[in-house]
Write a structure and sequence with these properties.
Elements (H helix, E strand, L loop, with lengths): L20 H13 L6 H10 L1 H11 L4 E2 L22 E2 L1 H5 L8 E7 L11 E4 H16 L8 E6 L3 H12 L3 E6 L4 H11 L3 E5 L1 E4 L2 E4 L1 H15 L4 E5 L14 E2 H11 L19 E6 L9 E5 H15 L7 E4 L6 H7 L7 E6 L8 H9 L3 E5 H9 L4 H4 L7 E5 L5 H11 L4 E4 L1 E3 L4 E5 L13 E2 L5 E4 L12 E5 L9 E2 L8 H15 L7 E9 L10 E6 L13 H12 L13 E9 L4 E9 L8 H14 L8 E4 L14 H7 L18 H20 L1
Parallel strand pairs: 3-15, 5-6, 5-7, 6-12, 7-10, 10-11, 14-15, 14-16, 16-17, 17-18, 28-29
Antiparallel strand pairs: 1-2, 3-4, 8-9, 12-13, 13-24, 19-20, 20-21, 22-23, 23-25, 25-26, 27-28
Helix pairs in contact: 2-3, 5-6, 5-9, 7-8, 17-18
């Protein structure tokens, strides 16, 4: 593969690029199709120009288990058509996760944050043989509930071994997996689960975070009460007991994990005559799991991902692009509510060991790096915010740990600042592939990211991923010129495109299915005709070392809040305010809010942001300290600590458009330094109120400036 450079400085060059799986794949493509591709960019261009041949070849290269059949996709289809893929194929995602059955190889290693009561918690380990047996028993137990393919099975849990087993067992029988992190407030989970109505919910009894045990069953009970009241849903509840002195439960309808597994073991359902799990192989486009958007413009969008797309895309990313190997130990710091959990679990298809972690990543900044040495972690995944915080507290892992086992470090969640590239190579490891990766919940995979055959350039994502035809468009829908930033779009179909929003046809009323389909089109295909609009503002850099150009992420195009790399929508805060502080006859007038607006202010030199909540009160009341505390408390308990605003500020009025929509993006720009003249006042119902936001913005920026000088 041609790796000649135009002379740009490098931070890392792969020592064995020519022996990488990516180069091997290029060689196979040349041989199969009689081509003379020479660089990664050559391969990339072929992959997006011949999507049918490319994905057909990927299926064979990564050894998908299942029936492929004839036909891949219409090579002339446009993304907006969301064409079917591999129409004759029959696969099961979980079956492909459990091809390794070794009794001597660990599949899962669970580490838990220490607490004063348990300063040295032992790691839990499960071999691939044990994992398969436990999945088989849980499959049997789930079948005793008369579950059918397409039924939803949900989790409100921590990042534990049982959660992975539950996901594998549910999808093994064709059920659709739904997950919410244990640190989510019950109101946020209720808004998600009520849309998909799961028949079963798995939940832990307690979680560990920041050195403390947090009892989870009260939140579970609150969720179940809400589901019963709102949609008359009473799912079967399986409680995963953690042995952390969690509170007992009174509900006799709940079942413990151990009892449920024992029931499955004795029932022996869902097995073939040979004792193999009776995998429910479905079509390539069969729904695998539902992920939720952040909820910026209303309730979180339930995004349905197809089983074949998730499998084929993950295998392409891991095998061909990242060169993951069965001997790797793969860790990603994530909760079960972030798509990186799904990303991590898909690593089982490689046969490598996955490390799960339940706890805070920074209470003891050395802890995760101790795990690297102890468990010989070779692939370390985290967020840009974690690396930023680690650098700011002055922690230098390289000075305290060996870390020679590390091959790759992955970073996502927010753009990785240029200085953090330097920090990783100077303070963590001088010879590691640092991959800033981007994609998101919408595709549950990557548009751009890592390649083991390419070097790393400071501040850049290495490359556009094979088969992902991403470009940058101007606001009026033209291709950006060289050096011009624009909106990230994908101009060719890709197999990990969501099937749609829930409910799909056959899973809801005609009216609800049509509404979901319309919402789906408006989310991704309303901005530009026929191409996928992703909502990221990016720059594609000039090609270096044959990479076809790296990517620099410049931020979200919309108003999604992203403090500390944790994305969520403004409506999640609005809903709490509406529920707890809206005017009613029963509520004291001093506890009411007339209106509100929430935006993000850029901090830390643009590497992070903080949440600013503006409130308008009734009459001539003044925002009191007690009211501020109550607002923070309700947001914290009903959402999460990450949702709590950094500043709550009273304003005289909230700006609205002529058609009655809150004006978030212009206010965000103003408090970050834009002039009022940059806003088209003709589109606003009350443009005069922007002057107050400009004044407040100056005050907020001065706060940040003073804080940075301390």
């Amino acid at each position: 593969m041609n790796t000649e450079s135009p002379g740009a400085p490098l931070l890392f060059a792969p020592p064995d690029a020519r022996t990488s799986r990516c180069v091997a794949f290029l060689t196979n493509v040349n041989k199969k199709y009689g081509l003379a591709l020479d660089s990664y960019f050559d391969l990339y261009q072929w992959s997006i120009g011949h999507i049918d041949s490319f994905w057909d070849t990927v299926w064979d290269e990564v050894a998908i288990v299942g029936y492929k059949g004839q036909g891949v996709v219409d090579n002339n289809a446009l993304p907006a058509a969301n064409p079917p893929w591999f129409s004759e194929a029959r696969i099961n995602w979980a079956e492909n996760m459990l091809t390794c059955r070794s009794p001597d190889k660990f599949a899962l290693i669970q580490a838990t944050e220490p607490t004063p009561e348990c300063p040295n918690p032992p790691h839990r380990r499960v071999t691939y043989a044990d994992l398969y047996a436990m999945v088989a028993d849980l499959v049997s137990a789930l079948l005793t509930l008369d579950l059918k393919p397409g039924d939803r099975v949900a989790s409100y849990s921590s990042n534990c071994i049982e959660n992975v087993i539950a996901c594998l067992a549910a999808t093994a029988i064709g059920c659709i997996w739904v997950s919410a992190a244990a640190d989510f407030g019950t109101q946020g989970v209720l808004e998600r689960f009520e849309q998909v109505q799961p028949r079963v919910i798995f939940a832990v009894d307690a979680v560990v975070y920041n050195g403390k045990v947090h009892h989870h069953l009260p939140k579970l009970q609150s969720l179940l009460s809400g589901l019963s009241e709102r949609c008359s849903l009473n799912p079967v509840v399986i409680v995963i007991q953690s042995a952390r002195n969690a509170s007992a439960w009174d509900d006799t309808n709940w079942v413990s994990w151990d009892s449920f597994i024992s029931k499955g073991k004795s029932s022996c359902l869902g097995r073939t005559a040979e004792g193999e799990i009776e995998w429910c192989r479905q079509s390539f486009d069969w729904p695998l799991w539902i992920l939720f958007s952040s909820g910026t413009t209303g309730r979180p969008k339930p995004i349905v991902h197809r089983a074949g797309g998730m499998l084929l895309q993950a295998k392409k990313e891991f095998v061909i692009c990242a060169d993951l190997r069965p001997e790797d130990v793969f860790f990603y710091y994530t909760t079960t509510g972030w798509m990186m959990w799904n990303f991590l679990v898909s690593g089982l298809s490689i046969g490598c060991a996955l490390v799960l972690y339940d706890g805070s990543p920074l209470r003891d900044p050395s802890y995760l790096w101790h795990l690297v040495d102890e468990l010989q972690i070779s692939i370390f995944g985290t967020s840009a915010k974690y690396l930023d915080q680690l650098s700011r507290i002055g922690y230098r892992p390289r000075d305290h740990h060996d870390l020679t086992c590390l091959r790759h470090i992955y970073s996502t969640g927010s753009p990785l600042a240029h200085a953090l590239f330097d920090y990783v190579y100077e303070r963590i490891h001088p010879n590691v592939l640092l991959a800033s990766i981007t994609g998101g919940t919408d595709i549950c995979s990557l548009f751009a990211g890592m390649c083991s055959a390419l070097p790393v350039h400071r501040g850049e994502i290495q490359c556009r991923m094979l088969g992902m035809a991403i470009e940058t468009f101007t606001h009026d829908g033209h291709n950006c010129q060289a050096g011009e930033a624009g909106e990230l779009v994908c101009v060719r179909p890709f197999p990990c495109m969501p099937i749609g929003f829930w409910p799909l046809a056959g899973f809801g009323t005609d009216e609800s299915v049509k509404a979901a389909a319309k919402r789906f089109r408006l989310s991704y295909f309303a901005e530009y005709k026929d191409v996928w609009y992703h909502g990221d503002h990016v720059l594609i850099t000039p090609s270096q070392h044959g990479n076809g150009g790296g990517l620099i992420m410049l931020g979200r195009s919309d108003g999604v809040l992203n403090p500390g790399g944790i994305r969520f929508g403004s409506s999640e805060i609005y809903n709490v305010l509406e529920m707890c502080f809206s005017f009613s006859e029963e509520r004291n007038a001093n506890d009411t809010i007339e209106d509100a607006l929430v935006v993000a202010q850029s901090i830390e030199g643009g590497t992070d942001e903080r949440v600013i909540l503006f409130v308008k009160l009734y009459g001539k009341r003044t925002l009191s300290i007690e009211m501020e505390q109550k607002i923070r408390s309700e947001i914290r308990s009903r959402r999460s600590p990450r949702h709590v605003p950094a500043r709550i500020i009273q304003v005289d009025d909230i700006p609205y458009t002529l058609n009655g929509k809150r004006v978030e993006i212009p206010v965000k720009k103003i408090i970050n330094g834009a002039q009022i003249s940059s806003v088209n006042s003709a589109t606003l119902r009350n443009p005069e109120c922007l002057a107050q936001f400009a004044s407040i913005g100056e005050m907020l920026r001065n706060e940040i400036s003073i804080a940075m000088k301390r």
